[in-house]
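Posted in: Protein Modeling Q&A

I'm a second-year student putting together a small comparison for a lab meeting, and my supervisor asked me to include a predicted structure for Zinc finger protein 277. I've never done this before, so apologies if this is the wrong subforum. The sequence is pasted below exactly as I got it from our records. If anyone can share the structure token output, I'd also love a short note on what stands out.
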Amino acid sequence: TECILEPLSLPESPGGSAAVETSSDVPCIFCKECYILAEQNQLLKHMIIEHKLVIADVKLVADFRRYILYWKKRFTEQPITDFCSVIRTNSEAPLEEQDNYFLLCDVLPEDRLLREQLQQKRLREILEQQQQERYDTSFHSMCMFCDQEFTGNRSVLLNHMAREHAFNIGLPDNIVNCYEFLAVLQNKLDNLQCLYCEKVFRDKNTLKDHMRKKQHRRINAKNKEYDRFYIINYLEFGKSWEEVQSEDDRELLDNLEEDWSDWEEHPMCAVCLFCEQQADTTEKLYLHMQVILVLNIISLIHYACFLPSLLGLNFYQQVKLVNFIRREIHHCRCYNCQEKFQLKTELISHMEETKHVTFLPARSTWDQPQYYFPTYENDTLLCTLSDSEDVTPEDSSEDVPVVSEDTSNLKALKQSSILNQLL
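Accepted answer (user: helix_wrangler)
Welcome! Here is the predicted structure, written out as tokens:
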């Protein structure tokens, strides 16, 4: 076979390109016999019996008519043996009883390229059709299960049937040639045929009861007749929706078996309360803050933040305290005396000299709901706080009695209840 060094061009019929588009007849590759497109199998049978030509995987040819026209032209230019493999039957019989059949398949690079070009052309046409249907507002159709009429976009009807009648044929954006699809389904119902098991019933009521009780109010996914109405069947050359989905499933299973031994986890970096220094452990952060403040920084503040059991702070109080300190430092304000500074370095110097860093302000200043919200996004320091179940907040040391309202007289209760004030 010859190499294809440039893109192939689809041939025109003897009557010109217009004749190709308007005619629906498919000619034999070798003779003047013609068949309508719906009689494709009759043409294939004719070429096998009369001309000994076998075309492999015909179902994968996106445009059968253009495929036949292309090879009709090529076979007039070169001998058939330049393109086809020769299969000899009855090879052990006498020579006069032997037959040579010619196999045309996509092992031939020219044939495969032609099939791929036809598939890409069909995919472009299908996507254009789907895009047109997605934005079409002139859609008009009746529901197949009730007398309701729908106009506007096709999605209105499809969503109605899925929601009200539990009949779901898929997302509207996955469907193409929707008018034809609905017509095929309606024709089956008119012929009293179940859409799923495809049995025929004696009347409409029996069919409805059957589809409802057997949960057959759906289409049969194995019926190849419906494949042309779903975009997934046009996406990959030579693959059906079942093959595409099974490949997706295999990829998921393969991913589960992947070796994660080379996984490198990036350490979480916590940022100092008083500057931009980062550390990947709280111990390193302690050391840094000791150095930067040049004093015994393992003080009340840091015990409060990292060792809550010393002050009896629960997890949420720790969160509020850290967010409070971050907010005050961000505003260059001392969290003890509330003095404000222009630079953060001036603030730190002030807190060192006055020892304000070692004193925790009154709880009422920081134990407030507003400090539940982080001052900085992704503040890793909040993730390092311990959530000790042994910590008991000071406020919870006393038993608080709960007195229920008297419900013996509901009418009087509705008039005097404290809930009225909330309303």
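A couple of things worth pointing out for your meeting: Residues 109-134 form the longest helix (26 residues). Confidence is low (pLDDT under 50) at residues 1-22, 294-310, 389-400.
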